[in-house]
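Q: Structure for this?
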Amino acid sequence: MRAIAPLLAVLSLATAVRAAEPLASWNDGRAKKAVIAFVTKVTKEGGPDFVPVNERIAAVDNDGTLWSEQPTYTQVAFAFDRIRHLAAKRPEWKQTQPFKAVLEGDMKAVLAGTARDRVELIAASHAGMTPEEFETIVKEWLATAKHPRFSRPYTDLVFQPMLELLAYLRANDFKVFIVSGGGVEFMRPWSERVYGIPPERIVGSLIKNKYEIRDGRAELIRLPEVEFIDDKAGKPEGIQRVIGRRPIAAFGNSDGDYEMLRWTLSGSGPRFGLIVHHTDAEREWAYDRHSPVGRLDKALDEAPERGWVVVDMKKDWKVVYPFQLPAP
Amino acid sequence: MRAIAPLLAVLSLATAVRAAEPLASWNDGRAKKAVIAFVTKVTKEGGPDFVPVNERIAAVDNDGTLWSEQPTYTQVAFAFDRIRHLAAKRPEWKQTQPFKAVLEGDMKAVLAGTARDRVELIAASHAGMTPEEFETIVKEWLATAKHPRFSRPYTDLVFQPMLELLAYLRANDFKVFIVSGGGVEFMRPWSERVYGIPPERIVGSLIKNKYEIRDGRAELIRLPEVEFIDDKAGKPEGIQRVIGRRPIAAFGNSDGDYEMLRWTLSGSGPRFGLIVHHTDAEREWAYDRHSPVGRLDKALDEAPERGWVVVDMKKDWKVVYPFQLPAP
């Protein structure tokens, strides 16, 4: 019975998800219909577009696609807090960019930096410890830090409709991977709890780890060096490296996801691409072409000709965050 | 019923594996007892050594641990065949090492090279195509190439006792990953069929991929550049990058697995390390300290003090290959 119990639990969960209306927080528009049509056709055994279970790979961006990325990426907020915490022991940071800007609270100067600047900042503020020690630091920060606008833990700012999308994909035997420009070790400590996505299903940016013996024990030590940036063309490269198969569906929200969507949809057979367009200043934020965070320009222009579904957050989503759901 | 059918299939399979004696092709010695004792204690709910399902990560080397690596690594045999095939269009290879040695059949010169030499050779002979095209080439080669000693497909030379070990771990809800010095894209085309391990559960050496647009389609192109060598200290680094958690069990056969075993066993809580010692010249090969392929020296010396189980292939395994099994 011991071996059967977990399977029955999975069975109950799958049944519960399927019994409920899929994508319940999505309005009945073009986006919802397109998601359901795609999943229905690739799971229809014997149908012309059937995709075997082991090839049902979905790649989903994190910042701006699964949770809010304003006023800046959550990992940047974490890095800033961490740099302030470490600054007492690093007096030279007061004179060195980009640390100086962080310590002076000059967000504009920090945001004006390149993606590599941001990752360098993150790397420098995240290094010199084992991955396990870093995991503890991330968990402690998430347990106490509050989002400046909503005064809630950052992990409350996940998108309810996207949680339902993840559940719908899983109920249809998709393997769902996060593919994010963010640091992979920043997401792993909480992705299973918040999204149901385990650590080994996250593709992200990397800093270098170095194997060494400390007090007779073998450890990895995080170095302040960027190894890989999982953004733009890095996304397909990161997917191939970690997942080893071209996804059949990709979900993003910015030009950083452009190459991932193009590569996904360049494969043969049925393919699906979706972009979350942030159009809701009241419930979340409204931004696209001129945003320093999550800029969406080229991908928005080309979405129609490439057949990518564009979600209009304001029109397509009944609620944005789980805490906005009506009480049951 | 559609959603339930695959779950029932999993249930039947799990039941079948559990109904049969686990590790049936292992003699009843210290190694088999140690494997069963470890798996039993980490799966005993409420016991002092219980490990939750999501932390049951096992890392298993491939060459020499899951299949034979003599007279040379299978991927090297593939690369040599591929270089011979491509040589007509690369006349300069006749004058350039290490290609010259390959074309002249001078195995000694090739084997005298470093690990990086070998991977460079592999990279140069494997590049200039998409991962999907490379997959096709690997599959075609495996369908026709024969191992020089056994005159059988290379994938027949997997170790029956290790297939049973993989099944036993899976039946106990372990997530099993291959962690190999070999190229990840060389293993992915057949690992699911042969080992039941899907492409995303393989950590291995990498060559660079470059995103580009070809005839209006987005593709990755394999470049003749080594990106990462997943050997020695590279193994823990590769595991952290892809899996994101320290395994609780590691299985290897050479000094290339030393750092992976040390790192695995340096974690807190119950841990397990195992080394396959090739002691059977009659049924397979006998080699260790002086072998140019799969050298086992330091790891063999330190195994007793570190508590690593050493499998004596000749004594511990009833059969080596599946084709040696008695007819049912």
